[in-house]
């Protein structure tokens, strides 16, 4: 399997907007080789991300949801070129990220940052948090010396910490404070696009809302665009403008948030939303229990990847892979129930 990116047509924007997309992902693929035997020969591939296409407009938060192992985090890392795509393309403000030279990629990294899931492993325990931020500023040629120290303290303050926290080590902070430091480090380069990869899943529930509010405040203050990756649909409902649902490396539904939560169209989306707890005990909600386990991405089923667990499976689902096509409302769904074959 080649590890070179594939040239595809220029990026498009979704039907809901006329602006140039900040991020346009077209037919993105990321396969990991399976090696066996003494000679470590490649005998197969794990299809972590398989033909994913979506766009994000300026100032928008795109929520990417799905079960653990569906390829959400791999999608985010591949978009930022933290690894090599197997196929497809990623355009940032119209520029092909995978065609960029090393020097150009360094410049793009100033505008495209990531907030990792685990704040405990994202920070160097041997460096003060101020030193970690100053190092980033130095590497990118933005500031050194007293100027770098002032900028580090300023960005920490903007993220809800104090200036003197710059002299402390990561182990001296709580989990929520560490995540604030991670966000501050990403913000130090004045990015325009941030991948937030499960930014609250490692935190206590009492702290999660604080981090969500911080991300929203920063988005308003710095005109940020987010790819918000999460398995928690309740959180995504609060922060996202549009939602994309992944299953077994593929997008199965993409749509505007309110429409998606009001009436999910894909059977997998319906099952995910049925699991969200309802605060009102008088409301009876039907829980959709899926049978079986998620198939292995190393050996995905033929046809629709969800057909082995779908309660509405038809014969065509077992042989024909449904395309992610728009409905009359503009929502895109990959399902033969929604788009019957002619």
Q: Can you characterise this structure?
A:
The protein is of the alpha/beta class. It has one domain (23-126, 169-333): 3-Layer(aba) Sandwich (Rossmann fold). The protein has 9 helices and 12 strands. The longest helix has 18 residues, at 205-222. The protein is globular, with a radius of gyration of 21 Å.
Q: What brief labels describe this structure?
A:
alpha/beta, Rossmann fold, 8-stranded mixed β-sheet, 4-stranded antiparallel β-sheet, 9 helices, 28% helix, 22% strand, globular, disordered N terminus
Map the helices and strands.
Layout: E1 23-36, E2 41-56, E3 61-65, H1 72-79, E4 87-92, E5 95-96, H2 102-111, E6 112-115, H3 129-139, H4 145-158, H5 175-187, E7 193-197, H6 205-222, E8 225-230, H7 233-239, E9 242-247, E10 250-256, H8 257-262, H9 267-274, E11 325-326, E12 332-333
Parallel strand pairs: 3-8, 3-9, 6-7, 7-8
Antiparallel strand pairs: 1-2, 1-4, 4-5, 9-10, 10-12, 11-12
Let me know the average pLDDT. Answer: 90
Share of helix among residues? 25-40%
Number of strands: 12
Shape: globular
Q: Please report the distance between the alpha carbons of the first and last residues.
A: 34 Å
CATH class: Alpha Beta
Rounded to an integer, what's the Rg over CA atoms? 21 Å
User: Going by CATH, what is the homologous superfamily?
Assistant: P-loop containing nucleotide triphosphate hydrolases
Strand percentage, roughly?
Answer: 15-25%
What is the domain total for the residues? 1
Q: In CATH terms, what is the architecture?
A: 3-Layer(aba) Sandwich
Please outline the major beta sheet. Answer: 8 strands, mixed
Instruction: Show unreliable segments.
Output: 1-18
Order of helical and strand elements: EEEHEEHEHHHEHEHEEHHEE
Tally of contiguous helical segments: 9
Tell me the strand order in the biggest sheet: 6-7-8-3-9-10-12-11
């Amino acid at each position: 399997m080649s590890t070179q990116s594939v040239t595809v047509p220029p990026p498009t924007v979704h039907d809901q907007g006329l602006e140039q997309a900040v991020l346009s992902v077209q037919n993105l693929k990321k396969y990991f080789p399976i090696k066996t035997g003494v000679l470590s020969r490649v005998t197969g591939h794990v299809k972590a991300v398989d033909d994913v296409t979506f766009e994000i407009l300026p100032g928008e938060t795109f929520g990417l949801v799905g079960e653990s192992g569906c390829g959400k985090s791999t999608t985010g890392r591949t978009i930022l070129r933290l690894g090599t795509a197997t196929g497809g393309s990623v355009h940032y403000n119209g520029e092909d990220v995978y065609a960029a030279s090393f020097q150009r990629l360094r410049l793009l990294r100033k505008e495209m940052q990531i907030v990792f899931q685990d704040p405990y492993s994202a920070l160097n325990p041997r460096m003060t948090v101020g030193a970690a931020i100053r190092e980033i500023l130095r590497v990118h040629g933005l500031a050194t010396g007293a100027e770098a120290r002032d900028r580090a303290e300023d960005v920490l303050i903007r993220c809800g910490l104090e200036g003197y926290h710059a002299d402390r080590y990561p182990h001296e902070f709580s989990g929520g404070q560490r995540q604030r430091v991670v966000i501050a480090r990403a913000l130090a380069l004045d990015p325009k696009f941030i991948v937030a990869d499960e930014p609250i899943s490692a935190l206590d529930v009492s702290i999660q809302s604080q981090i969500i509010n911080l991300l929203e405040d920063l988005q308003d203050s710095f005109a940020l665009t987010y790819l918000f990756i999460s398995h928690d649909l309740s959180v995504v409902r609060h922060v996202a403008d549009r939602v994309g649902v992944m299953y077994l490396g593929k997008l199965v539904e993409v749509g505007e948030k309110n429409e998606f939560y009001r009436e999910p169209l894909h059977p997998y989306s319906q099952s995910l939303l049925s699991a969200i707890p309802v605060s009102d005990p008088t409301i009876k909600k039907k829980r959709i229990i899926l049978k079986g386990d998620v198939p292995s991405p190393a050996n995905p089923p033929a046809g629709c990847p969800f057909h082995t667990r779908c309660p509405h499976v038809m014969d065509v689902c077992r042989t024909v892979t449904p395309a992610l096509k728009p409905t009359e409302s503009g929502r895109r769904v990959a399902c033969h129930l929604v788009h019957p074959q002619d």
